[in-house]
Specification:
By secondary structure, the chain is of the alpha+beta class. The chain is built from eleven helices and 38 strands. The protein is 33% helix and 28% strand. Helix 2 runs antiparallel to helix 11.
């Protein structure tokens, strides 16, 4: 019978012997554990490196825009009168401002209703924007599309009309005000201020008679605030603007008017001082230096060796990390190619390396650089494209665009699709053009999008400008065209007594073609086939002496170093050289791209961590294989020592038996 407990029969410590033997057998596992711990430490270190590089990329990405380094600051002497901001194209100086009037939006109100649930009626409201002369005349604003709002039984109450107008997004805000005397009044306010944004509201069917405000005829609504332009003086020059936010009075400066100077009286100006924002530029440079130093410190800590403890960082000697930092440092120390300004390296503005590999800023030298050629600092950090022709604008480039100066040649400009009407209008509008029931409808196709039936306001038009404005406003208010974002401009060509309708877009898809009209529209307005319809065309030209792709007014380089440069050409000479486009990529822009490549799915960080993870996975496979082998070895050891235990036990029994027998025999012979 087999022994139930190893060693009982022989006295051998079988479990202890097997345990010690297995401890020796398990030594390869200990080596694998140590190796795995090293890989795990590297994996954790690469996680820290990735986080540091990500933070670095975020910082330099935010500095890759030239505006960060070309900022100007506009400071008003009295910020209760006006506030101001300046862009990089503003000219430094001091400007005198007087605010005489503030711009106002047009407001009109209905008569009072008992409750907000009182029924107003149903029908279709037609809303136009324009200038009300206060004497029965209304000039349509051609830049504002005519809008329509359908009121049916689901929204025919006072609150329903309010909600329907607001949800229609037509440039009119509706509110209800209870004056405590006459009840609830619907108040309509033009979303845009200015004299040219007065409201004209008519309705079809008469079911909404309470909501009529026609400056040329009936007004059932009451004006509560007149539409008014802002009036101010800038350096003594009087300006009139539709909005209190003025962006085009001083180039590059936005002024927000808040209240009148001295209640609108003259002779009490405030000043707005525009100056270089030196602190902002210095802050941007400091941000760059700190971002670089943070990643440099992280890498130094991960790759350092401590001579005292004789221990190295988890990435000490890692070639991938060394290469990564080396490439970053090489980029930062190299001068920027393609720059035409005063500075070409960080050292030029006082940024230099220290012995530990970090960057430091010489504030005195940086301040001198800012005060000397501040605009040129932008090129050291951002991707910058500059053209020598004012009508050729740099738009963008790609990551593959090479820094350099590239010649630009324009063969032909982009054109818009247009429709030249017949010359049937009265010469000089000696007699008005009367629009009525037989000549008030038309339809048009714009850039391939067909309008619905466009109905003009029946009226007598005394000028070509008024007639053109009415047609343009109504066409641009068509639902189909509005939803597709298609617009046209309509102008009166006095030299040829005709209307010219032009698509807002450029290129071969640009089109403006009338497709149907009222019975006498053709005879009255000259808007019908077979009059001249022309499609637009793309810009044609070259960049860097190679054919470029024209798309509307854009010209994009294809191939070569200039590949990806996109230019917007708005006018100027044709079949002619148009100067050059200089493109450079500053340190922040280049680092953004470089670090992005490190962090990409195929970059050094991902490939290295993938390799480490694979090594850890391989260790797991090796450990499983060793554990299976150890199970077999332990079973063999136990089998062998159990057999030895049994053998020794049997021998011991035999020895004891013989000893007993010999003792008995000895007594017998005695």
């Amino acid at each position: 019978m087999a022994l139930s407990s190893p060693g009982i029969g022989s006295g051998l410590d079988v479990n202890g012997i097997v345990s010690q033997l297995m401890a020796v057998e398990r030594q390869p596992l200990q080596k694998l554990d140590l190796k795995e711990a090293t890989f795990q430490a590297k994996l954790s270190a690469y996680g820290s490196l990735k986080g540091s590089l990500s933070s670095f990329q975020s910082a330099v990405s935010g500095l890759s825009s030239a505006s960060k380094f070309q900022s100007l600051k506009a400071t008003p002497s009295d910020s209760t009168i006006a506030t101001a901001s300046a862009s990089s194209i503003a000219a430094a100086g001091s400007y005198s401002i007087e605010v005489l009037k503030l711009a106002q939006s047009h407001k009109i109100a209905t008569a009072g209703y008992a409750t907000v649930d009182s029924v107003v009626g149903t029908g279709t409201l037609t809303i136009q924007f324009g200038t009300d002369n206060g004497a029965g005349g209304f000039a349509v604003n051609p830049d504002k599309a005519t809008q329509t709002v359908v009121i049916d039984s689901t929204n025919s109450t006072l609150s329903g009309v309010r909600d329907k107008i607001n949800s229609s997004n037509i440039g009119v805000k509706a509110t209800i005000v209870n004056d405590g005397i006459n009840g609830n009044k619907l108040v309509l306010t033009s979303a845009d201020s200015g004299a040219a944004n007065s409201l004209s509201i008519t309705n079809a069917g008469g079911g909404l008679a309470a909501l009529v405000y026609d400056p040329t005829a009936t007004k059932t609504m009451t004006q509560t605030q007149v539409a008014q332009n802002a009036s101010a003086t800038v350096d003594g020059i009087t300006i009139s603007k539709a909005s209190n936010t003025i962006t085009d009075a001083i180039q590059g400066v936005t002024i927000n008017l808040l209240k009148l100077t001295n209640a609108g009286a003259s002779g009490s100006p405030i000043s707005i001082n525009v100056a270089r924002d030196s602190a902002g530029i210095g802050s941007a440079v400091d941000t760059f230096v700190k971002a670089y130093n943070d990643v440099n410190k992280t890498v130094a800590g991960l790759t350092a060796y401590d001579a005292k403890t004789k221990r190295g960082g988890p990435l000490l000697g890692d070639a991938s990390v060394s290469s990564t930092l080396s490439r970053i440092r090489s980029l930062v120390t190299a001068p920027i190619k393609g720059l035409s300004g005063a500075y070409s390296s960080l050292a030029d503005i006082g940024v230099s390396f220290q012995r530990d590999g970090s960057l430091t800023v010489n504030s005195t030298k940086l301040s001198a650089a800012v005060n000397g050629n501040a605009d040129d600092i932008a090129g050291l950090f951002a991707a910058v494209g500059k053209t020598s022709d004012s009508q050729v604008k740099f738009v963008s480039a790609t990551s593959g665009t090479v820094a350099g100066a590239y010649p630009v040649y324009v063969t032909s400009l982009a054109t818009q699709g247009n429709y030249l009407g017949a010359g049937v209008l009265p010469a000089g509008f000696a007699t008005p053009v009367v629009i009525g029931a037989t000549n008030n409808t038309l339809a048009i196709r714009v850039d391939g999008v067909q309008s619905g039936t466009v109905t003009l306001t029946s009226a007598s038009y005394a000028t070509g400008a008024a007639l053109a404005a009415e047609i343009q406003s109504k066409i641009n208010g068509d639902t189909n065209l509005l939803s597709s974002g298609k617009t046209v401009s309509v102008a009166y060509d006095s030299a040829n007594n005709r209307l010219v309708t032009t698509s807002a877009s450029y290129g071969p898809a640009s089109e403006a073609a009338f497709t149907s009209w009222g019975t006498t529209t053709q005879a009255t307005l000259g808007l019908a086939v077979p009059f001249s319809t022309s499609l637009g065309s793309n810009l044609v030209g070259t960049i860097n002496d190679a054919s470029a792709t024209g798309t509307g007014q854009h010209l994009t380089a294809a191939g070569g170093g200039a590949d990806g440069i996109d230019l917007l050409v708005t006018g100027g000479a044709v079949a002619s050289s148009r100067g050059t486009v200089n493109y450079s990529r500053g340190y922040a822009s280049q680092l953004d791209q470089l670090v992005g490549s490190f962090l990409s799915s195929s970059g050094v960080v991902a490939s290295t961590t993938d390799g480490i993870n694979q090594s850890i996975k391989d260790i797991g496979s090796q450990r499983n294989a060793i554990n299976l082998r150890l199970t077999t070895i332990e079973a063999r050891y136990r089998k062998q020592f159990t057999a030895l235990d049994v053998a020794i036990s049997n021998m011991t029994k035999t020895s004891n038996f013989l000893t007993q027998q010999l003792a008995v025999l000895s007594k017998t012979t005695a």
